[in-house]
Design a protein that fits this description.
single chain, mainly alpha, 228 residues, 9 helices
Length: 228
């Protein structure tokens, strides 16, 4: 249970810091600083949690990462499903915390949907959105599998490498899909946005579930082949 609680706390933190930053600064292409701040917020969240709960749960805090680890033969199915549930609960709690803070503080949500993902950057194309999420998740999960391999020898620098990689994929992906690469991170804000009266993010949330999971599966298959 401690592993699941760690995953819940980690995912909650990721949503609060990452989505919260996006809500506060916005991600308008005309003001590129918002891109960088949001990308850094997500990346630094991973770095912080990697060194905080990594020794407890491995700090997946992402169903796509857990799928990649499962397919790489590094976790069992029982833990996989426990991690998925904990991550989704953590993301939902994180989004709810943001809703409460922004409502009580009277702060404007610059994203309009609690930092949820969308297809506006790809002109509403679900196919383009899927491709973006598959490619970005493939890169991210491939990095994680490599860094955490027993043969890698990265030691204490692993969390930093993973966080910087997440920052990198966000810099490209924010303007296209808002960058999910994490189904839980998309589900939590989309549900809270729908409850608050904005159902648009929930209507396309399937893209941000399917895309990352496909990308993670491809990354695991690729890494398994390369490592043999």
């Amino acid at each position: 249970m401690k592993k699941y609680l760690a995953e819940c706390i980690g995912t909650c933190t990721l949503v609060v810091l990452g989505c919260g930053t996006a809500m506060l600064v916005g991600c308008d292409a005309a003001a590129g600083g918002g891109y960088i701040l949001t990308a850094l917020a997500f990346g630094l969240s991973i770095v912080a949690m990697a060194y905080c709960v990594g020794n407890i749960s491995g700090c997946h805090i992402n169903p796509a990462v857990s799928l990649g680890v499962l397919l790489a033969g590094r976790m069992d199915k029982k833990d996989f499903w426990g991690y998925i549930i904990a991550q989704c609960v953590g993301a939902l709690v994180g989004a709810a915390v943001l809703a409460l803070i922004f409502k009580l503080g009277g702060v404007q949500d610059m994203t309009g949907g609690f930092g949820s993902n969308g297809l506006g950057g790809v002109n509403g194309s679900a196919v383009a959105g899927l491709l973006v999420e598959i490619v970005l998740t493939f890169i991210f999960v491939l990095c994680i599998l490599g860094v955490t391999s027993g043969k890698a020898g990265h030691g204490s620098f692993g969390g930093l490498v993973i966080g910087l990689t997440l920052t990198g994929v966000h810099i490209l992906g924010i303007g296209l899909t808002g960058t999910s690469v994490n189904p839980a991170r998309s589900i939590g804000p989309a549900i809270v946005a729908a409850i608050s009266g904005n159902a648009a993010p929930f209507a396309c949330v399937w893209v941000f579930i399917v895309g990352p999971l496909v990308g993670a599966a491809l990354a695991a298959c690729c890494y398994n082949y390369l490592e043999k």
